[in-house]
Amino acid sequence: MEREPAEFFQELKLLVSDYLEARLKLFKYEIYEKSAKISATLFSSLVIAMLASMILFFLSIALGFYLGSVLNSYGTGFMIVTGFYILLLLPFIFFRKSWIEKSIINSVIEQLMDKEEDEK
Length: 120
Known about the structure:
This protein is mainly alpha-helical. It has one domain (35-119).
């Protein structure tokens, strides 16, 4: 027993509609997953950066006091530490686009492309 063409196209329309709805839901869930991954990575990186900054801050103060006691001038000790940080800062200022910005962009793209590589 054959189906009528109108019935066939009605069923086909329903199947295509269900398929497109399922694909849209899948796309939304993939976006949610990628957003969550990026947020988690960003949050954990911020926590690590904050803790590392605190450690560096207190070590710098300790080094400043130590150099100050060795040189009998706390001002000179802290100026040496400050000079060291200025020397470290200069390359980052001049090369920030090639070092920092590109590595962040590559990291975000890698996080976004992770799912696509898993599917292949």
